[in-house]
Amino acid sequence: MIARELPRRLAPPFAAVALLVLAFAVAPALADDDASEPQAAVFPNEIEAALVRAITGLSQYGIAHALGEIDHILSRAPNFRLGHLIRGDLLMARAGNPVAFGPAVNVASLSRTAPLQDEARARIKRFLEAPPADYLPLPVLQLAPTHQHAILVDTTRSRLFIFSNASGAPRLVTDFYVSVGKNGVEKQKEGDQKTPLGVYTIVSSKEKLPDFYGPGAFPISYPNEWDRQNGRGGYGIWLHGTPSETYSRPPRATDGCIVLANEDLKRLAKYVDVGRTPVVIASGVEWVEPERWAVSRRDFLSAFEQWRADWESLDTDRYLGHYSRQFKGDGKDLAAWSAHKRKVNAGKSWVKVGVANLSLFGLAEGEDTLVVTFEQDYKSSNLANRTQKRQYWSREGGRWRILFETVVS
Questions:
Q1: Would you say residue 198 lies in a domain?
Q2: Which of 226, 248, 83, 273 is nearest to 180 (CA)?
Q3: Tens of pLDDT along 145-193?
Q4: What are phi and psi of 17, to 5 degrees?
Q5: Structural domain of residue 73, as residue ranges?
Q6: Which of 19, 20, 70, 339 is the most exposed, having the fewest neighbouring CB atoms within 10 Å of its CB?
Q7: How far is 167 from 149, CA to CA, in rounded Å?
């Protein structure tokens, strides 16, 4: 996979876009000879397609061609501020004096143009650094049959990916440019203007909102039980659109919400199943070859199945061996949980634990922290019930153990 840092300050004779073309030209030569082929560019909308064509075609076709593409963009989206900035710079570059991306940018103009430069950089890097077509995201390891689609937000790339459910595996459908919090990620409290990292669900759909939100919004389940367990606060994290006078916002421009262009939000809507669609928000998503992805999934599911089997065995010591010393659940620490389970198991002659509709997602706290949600069908010699359960597992000393467990509605 190609990974190149694009320059933040750029030099003459043309503009930032000209040097971005150079990055495209040299990137294939810098990739490993035996690397997989990068994913073919598939554009979610014509606006972004024309923007990339304008920039990547500049060195081959010249400024006139690039201006034609930008004019095409602005005819469709006259409120696209980045398009206007690039058009102005192309016109000045043709006259030998780029102003927005050139070397003589003053402090005042830089404060106005830097966020738009960041947006251009994020949009271009999506196609410069596209993962190979068959690669899979590590944070999405298992989709329950009830999940027709899943949403993955990579805050580092300013990108939202939509996956369909291919027999439990994620299959990329499309992706969109997004904006996140002004102060970045890892939300901790109300008003910190950060976007949370974690695993959430779209809980409702809102329409007939003020123009600020565009055509609608999809609130997510922040704060979830893990956020509350870790003292995180705040509320009102939505996926929503932009005001009518704005096509898109810079990569870091929200109070914590995830913001899409209005036309992209409308496309997103058809993949949303309120109350079911998971939203995984991560920073720096790792995409891996299918074999490594499958090994990661099998590794965890083997540990999960052993936990289930040990519970059925009524060997309480083996069962409790799956729990971390830092475990919390139902208001109990590990000592209280252990005492409770020993007392319960002492009154059982047999236990059966069925599992269905299991989903498995990576958590932002680290690559070795996973969230598993499933329907539990519990039967025993003196009790039977069905619950929806969620567990947070972490690898400790080379072994998966449960950090947190709760029943969810």
A1: yes
A2: 248
A3: 999 999 999 999 999 999 999 999 999 999 999 999 999 999 999 999 9
A4: -60, -35
A5: 16-128
A6: 339
A7: 12
